[in-house]
Amino acid sequence: MNSTTHIIPIIIGNEKKAMKFGEFLMDNGIFAQPIRFPTVPKNQARLRISVTAWLSDRDIERSLEIFEKAYRKFK
């Protein structure tokens, strides 16, 4: 999904999976707010992250590594 703001939605779909995905990320130092029904339509749960200029290249690399681990764990 394309975004024109610093808020990036990551569509997960299943509400329970989105909650577990978000919990895994939080446990690994990344705040990614799970958004689910009724805020979004059923089965369109997502995580919302914000990317800012305050993040270093290493922060971004580490975050991507953790997202990849989460993806493999919850796919």
Helix-strand layout with pairing:
Layout lengths: L6 E7 L1 H13 L5 E3 L9 E6 L6 H18 L1
Antiparallel strand pairs: 1-3, 2-3
Helix pairs in contact: 1-2
Whole-number mean pLDDT: 91
Structural class: alpha+beta
The counted number of beta strands is 3
Largest sheet: 3 strands, antiparallel
**Quaternary class:** single chain
**Unreliable stretches, pLDDT < 50, 5 or more residues?**
none
Using the CA coordinates, give the radius of gyration: 12 Å
State the shape.
Answer: globular
Biggest sheet strand line-up: 1-3-2
**Strand fraction:** 15-25%
Q: N- to C-terminal separation?
A: 18 Å
Helix and strand succession?
EHEEH
- Determine the number of helices (DSSP H or I, runs of at least 4 residues): 2
Residues in helix, %: 40-55%
Summary keywords:
75 residues; alpha+beta; 3-stranded antiparallel beta sheet; 21% strand; globular
What does this structure look like?
This protein has 75 residues and is an alpha+beta fold. Helices cover 41% and strands 21% of the residues. It contains 2 helices and 3 strands. The chain has helices spanning 15-27, 57-74; strands at 7-13, 33-35, 45-50. Strands 1-3-2 form a 3-stranded antiparallel beta sheet, with helices on one face.
Brief summary:
The chain is an alpha+beta fold and 75 residues long.
